[in-house]
Amino acid sequence: MSGSDSHPVRRRTFVLTAAAAAGSAALAGPLAPTAAAAAFGYSDDGSNYVVDTGANLVFKVSKTNGDLTSLVYRGTEYQGYDGKNSHIESGLGSSTVTILQSGSTILISVTYGTLKHYYAARSGENNIYLWTNKADASVSATRYIVRVKAGLFLNDEPDSYTYAPTTIEASDVFAKSDGQTRSKHYSKLRVADYHYLGWTTGGVGLWIVRSNHEKASGGPFYRSLLRHQSADGGGLYEILYYGQNQTEEQRFGLQGPYVIAFTDGGAPSSSLFPGTLTTSWADSLGISGYVAAGGRGRVAGVGITGRNTAYPYTVGLANSAAQYWGSARASDGYFSVTGILPGTYTLTVHKGELAVHSTSVTVSAGATTTLNSIAIPSSNDPSNASAIWRINDWNGTPNGFKNADLMTYAHPSDVRAAAWTGNVVIGSGTETSAFPCYLWKDVNSGLLVYFRLTAAQAAAAHTLRIGVTTAYANGRPQVVVNDSWTSAIPSPPTQPSTRSLTNGSYRGNNHTFTYSIPASAWLTDTGQYNVLKIDVVSGSGTTSFLSAGTSIDAIDLLA
């Protein structure tokens, strides 16, 4: 649920995105009005370092393992449930924990093997700044979780589960008595869609503001769990590397800062957002792996031609060490991506979520790499190919297909989902909305598409293309035309090996299957419908919605 920052709703739960207004009356951040900082400082209670920010926030960090053991805002304890603290992964174990005050900043450093983690407080701010440096795979550190006491915020969102739900998949997807489904995986959001997330009562807001994700994996369109809440309590996550639906290898190095922010009910200040936040105050703190703004570069493109202006375009940069992205301006395709670590990157232009152009770019510290206008070759966008018919348009997502919107925040069995079966008639005007966004071997394999051809079209061979965005258990399409011609079983493309279609994500590796259909397969009677049958084939998977499946981007028959 999203809402206006200037009109908070009492006792409602919010997941707010980057589009939320920054003009709240209750800001939190470097540009916010600061409270008197007379109490700013830290103490040692024997077990914890106790930090008073001099505003309305007092927090404790364990001297033994670096857990965040207390989070008190305006006298109310927010941290913890089931005896669990807030921490990296499920807790680090015995660690070396030190504290240093440098002027208006307090830094707590946690070392556990090769992993280093940091908490920083600034005088007069209701924020905690966090960095995590995972140097290698010897330490499991894929997330930071802020554990929040039960009952402080309303529990009524797709990523919440209460009301004695029925478990319908694994141990993390549930059904309410009314048939709606809930899971911590159902965030609705891609990484590029949000700057912060959390909850508000209207009088208190508790948020986690994400980092720039330069050391994360999956790019701007990646989806993962972000937040959960149950009868026991809630969790806010910064995902450093998530094993579900991953399309890239894990990156190592310093990730952050990400921020735990309290407000008086409104959104956190935009001054905390990735791309906006400046941390020159941290330059001399000795944070392992820290690279100041002066050690970073920028890439700017004067424009992109060959775009389809009906779609947003995103420019991504990635190599094995880091990833970045930015939006191309709708009017001319201008883009600017800042704060980039020096190195050589693959620059990819995406139409929607479909890669349509790539090149190499080198970034130097303290410099701007300026690119001349990028021209997307017409052949790189499959939508430019002449087609006899096309179902949906090529944009790298299943958006527009039946149930596509619901599937980012619900299980396929959800009562709100339209029937997954049903056939499609070309020329009906409902080709896209009638076609299911996902196909499974055990649910709706054998879907039929009816279409007519002219005499000239029926006299020639044609290429059929089926674009997919991901697959589960190597599910891929095999086609039959008029019960007289059957395609070979295509080889499975590389896709994530974990669940995807049932936990809120269609994001995998976009792939196009092509089928060369001979003229002999078509009906010669132009008044009759040709029938295309699409089966899902695989030797893997189990049953129902966990049988082999795939997510559809577009389907067309080329002229």
TrEMBL record:
Name of the featured protein: rhamnogalacturonan endolyase
UniProt enzyme class: lyase
Signal peptide: 1-28
Rhamnogalacturonan lyase domain segment(s): 296-371, 388-557
Domain Rhamnogalacturonase B N-terminal: from-to ranges: 40-289
Major localization class: secreted
Enzyme Commission numbers on file: 4.2.2.23
GO BP annotation list: cell wall organization; pectin catabolic process
Catalytic activity line of the entry: Endotype eliminative cleavage of L-alpha-rhamnopyranosyl-(1->4)-alpha-D-galactopyranosyluronic acid bonds of rhamnogalacturonan I domains in ramified hairy regions of pectin leaving L-rhamnopyranose at the reducing end and 4-deoxy-4,5-unsaturated D-galactopyranosyluronic acid at the non-reducing end
Location of the protein in the cell: Secreted
Keyword annotations of the record: Cell wall biogenesis/degradation, Disulfide bond, Lyase, Secreted, Signal
